[in-house]
Amino acid sequence: MGKLEKELPERLTYHNLRHTLDVLQAAERIAVEESIPENEKELLLTAALFHDTGFLKKRDGHEVESCNIAHYYLPLYGYTGAEVEQVCGLIMATRIPQWPGDKLGEILCDADLDYLGRDDFFILSARLFTELKNEGIVKNEEEWNREQADFMGRHQYFTPGQVKLRQPVKEQYIELIKSKITNHIFNENK
Fold this sequence. Notes:
By secondary structure, this protein is mostly helical.
């Protein structure tokens, strides 16, 4: 965590230590809801901590870099080769589009995008917009709203608790974003 705090570029206003801790907390909550055994929960939480460490090196393909970092550090903490591979499988599940493969992958994917259905959605969304604009990935808020509405419309939560807790709120946010797009088009045509 110290490495993330010290070495991540400041332009990463979303993919930073706060995000990692947020995903860790969400993964732990969902794991408890899903009655995940302690040994599996430890691997899940390790994957949550490492899932975006690849941003230390690059954005595109950061999941592979995250696995490289996990392969380097985790054996130093007594993780077996099989455990490191399982952690890497979980990290790779978070690639967009998400493909979890198993219950732990579902939990990590849900934790990674937990914010889509939370009260602080617009705050975190603004941080992600700033980051993507800083990186030249989106040009303006209109483009961001279109991409965000499209992404959120395709996204699905996997665990029953997240479907119940976050999906209805996420649907409301999609409608709000779509109304911003519609209002922008309406105002342009005046």
